[in-house]
Specification:
The structure is a single chain. The chain is α/β, with parallel strands linked by helices. Helices cover 45% and strands 19% of the residues. The chain has 14 helices and 10 strands. Strands 1, 2, 3, 4, 5, 6, 7, 8, 9 and 10 form a 10-stranded mixed sheet that branches. α5 packs antiparallel against α6. The protein is globular, with a radius of gyration of 19 Å. InterPro entries: Glyco_trans_2-like, Glycosyltransf_2, Nucleotide-diphossugar_trans. This is Glycosyltransferase 2-like domain-containing protein.
């Protein structure tokens, strides 16, 4: 039997219609040294059955775990990591697919001193498709990559990356947090790397639908604070001591994301205004110059939120309709 080099972990909840293509996108790359671990997070539909049906094509390479109770994506990924045998770990969401060449590309990119790889993505919203990539490209030290992620210059997603297993530890993501947990885990993992290679090639297709969690719920400010606390707790001390300004920019970025979700939500005008007001109170104008230098889009959004919250909300809704169409509904 071929030794497992790469483990692809797929957390799944209510994914009976998409889990089959997700699994197939990994298997069709033809790597006998790759395993797929699907973690069904106590789905009430036929997600587990659909995953097992897809696994029948490669029963020695696809493993389906079922959690007894819904625990959230962080717990599902952690359960998959505990089962994984590969020295390289990649994550994939159950409604997305890896594109041909993902596995070979990240394997080649993980040379002797490179511990993590970032790739580009293809974003599909219905019939609309566009390609995106992190702003920072090339080789970075782990601390440089972590600070770039804090400034939104490296994407917050785990599914467009591959990590050497030791970067993830035993607690790769904060538990009990349902937004921003991805970014927190990515920042900490990158901070532990010797070198990170960032590539522009779009090798994952991210599929946005009206049912996506991103569009359906306004994050709690407590979730932002929990994610920031996870980063502060788990960053290596040498990185944490030099990243105070980056942490302040990260706080601003997450606060803007909460405000954007509120502007898009269907919670009603009063609820939306209450969240926007709370976010404005959380923002510090002193951070704006640093944000404008390192993450211009977030800095401009924060400045607009502070000065003209109604205009901020209108701008968010207009931009989202242009980029995502029907998927932008709350």
């Amino acid at each position: 039997m071929t030794a497992v080099r790469i483990s692809v972990i797929i957390p799944a909840h209510r994914a009976e219609g998409s889990i089959g293509p997700a699994i197939a996108s990994v298997l069709e790359q033809g790597r006998p040294d790759v395993e797929v671990i699907v973690v069904d997070d106590a789905s009430p539909d036929a997600t587990a059955e659909a995953a097992r049906a897809a696994a029948a094509a490669a029963p020695d390479r696809v493993h389906v775990l079922s959690l007894d109770a819904n625990a959230g994506v962080s717990a599902a990924r952690t359960a998959g990591l505990a089962r994984a045998r590969g020295e390289i770990i990649a994550f994939l969401d159950a409604d997305d697919v890896q594109l041909p060449g993902f596995l070979d590309t990240v394997d080649r990119a993980l040379t002797a001193d490179v511990d993590a790889v970032v790739v580009g993505r293809r974003v599909r919203t219905g019939s609309q498709v566009r390609e995106e990539a992190s702003r920072r490209q090339g080789l970075l030290t782990g601390p440089e990559a972590a600070r770039a992620a804090m400034r939104d210059a490296i994407t917050p997603f785990p599914w467009d990356k591959a990590f050497r297993r030791e970067l993830l530890g035993t607690e790769p993501f904060p538990r009990g947090v349902h937004r921003f947990e991805d970014l927190a885990g990515v920042i900490v993992a990158l901070s532990r790397a010797r070198t990170v290679r960032s590539l522009p090639a779009p090798l994952v297709e991210y599929r946005i639908s009206p049912g996506s969690l991103t569009w359906g719920r306004v994050p709690e400010r407590a979730e932002r604070d929990a994610a920031l606390g996870f980063v502060r707790t788990h960053l290596p001390p040498a990185v944490r001591e030099g990243a105070a300004q980056d942490m302040a920019v990260l706080h601003l970025l997450l606060t803007v994301l909460i405000a954007q979700s509120a502007a898009l939500s269907g919670t009603g005008a009063d609820g939306s205004r209450a969240v926007l007001s709370a976010c404005r109170r959380d923002l510090s104008a002193r951070v704006l110059p640093a944000a404008l230098r390192t993450s211009p889009a977030a800095g401009i959004a924060a400045a607009l939120l502070l000065a003209r919250p109604r205009l901020f909300a209108a701008a968010v809704r207009g931009r989202t309709r242009r980029r995502y169409g029907g998927a932008a509904r709350g």
